[in-house]
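Page 47, continued from p. 46.
Same chain as before, 454 aa.
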Amino acid sequence: MSHRILVIDDEQGIRAALGQLLEYEGYEVRSESNAPAGIATFEKWRPHLVFLDVKMAGMDGLEGLRRIRQIDPAASVVMISGHATIQTAVEATQLGAYDILEKPLDTDRILVLLRNALQHLSLQEENARLRETIESRFEIVGKSYAIRALTSQIEKVAVTPARILITGENGTGKELVARAIHRLSPRAAKPFVEVNCAAIPSELIESELFGHVKGSFTGAVADRTGKFEQADKGTLFLDEIGDMSLAAQAKVLRVLQDGEVTRIGGTKAHRVDVRVLAATNKTLEEEIAGGRFREDLFYRLNVVPLHVPPLRDRREDIPLLAQHFTNLLSQREGAAIRTLDSSAMEALQRYDWPGNVRELRNAIERVLILAAGPRVTGADITRLTGARPPDASGLGSLLECTTYDEFKNAAERAFLLHKLREMDWNVSETARVLDMPRSNLYKKIERYGLAREG
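Result:
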């Protein structure tokens, strides 16, 4: 596809000369003799670059530039001036002009400027695509009540400087929550630095967090900044903090209290401004009771607690997640393009997913690679992923009931809870679907102690 170039100049000779040169170089060119007509063409045609004369009758080029940038703040506009002054150049730059050319126009300068401007535009587009790809990889997918409640909490706490402790089982997406908080925070343009405390040996965790100076220990061959310094003005995410050694915990606590980091072997304290987010799959209260986690650090980190629900507690999100991973893996990571039919979705929803969202993603990737045909069925899911319901009878723990009355009550409770979740706890709509008087449903909700989660 050739790039589109718009020329706006009140001199016929300039329009003709530029048009001839640009068309010869393979660009698609349109010309207008005044700013209002040029702005209208810009809005309809959306060129990649605009050449805009400064001095024109009626609306001048600077006002035209202002209007174009209002339509598209990222528009690439090169100003043309017969007698450019420093003031004109400064004003054009402040309004967002890419560059300014003086008349008479120099062909070589025009071609070099065009090449640079379009390369800059390509880089911007590539960066936008990369950002979109990264954001889709770290997107929180789901419409269940549990996920909507979680995203609502994220939006509320992200704009504050509060420290947050994110809890949840392995594979639930605690890192996604941390990234979402950073992305919505005033620190979004600054670094997001992640440390997996469980993956770093205890003897190295302090060097990783706080840095070291050359010669402070065997292997310290050069000065090194730690993660706290790397995250200055941004966000530091301490994943699996429940696995951090007590010695490192004491130093982290000191940094949180004082806002200063001293590298191992060093004497100079470095001031840092870091928002700390922490995550764990452990119950830290139990770790504190067992002497494995500092209570004072817990209270420093747990200003706002956020819990990420396991996948089995939000089964209605499984089809959305499965489709999301199918699209992501097929379109961006080169997996085969396949469709998951209704029986496949049902098979996915019946399974408990002990590995949570991470296990589901791996299962979808395996199916896309190994399935025989373009349509994935429930049989493919069972055969290729081992995603079988915990109890083939479908009765699960109901079979553990000792009397018929106990079984009947447990079954009714489970059924009503499932329907209420399905209807997003709209009691009137649930009663209508069940063909049951609303007052009767309210009594059963009270009898079984049913309550909305979250």
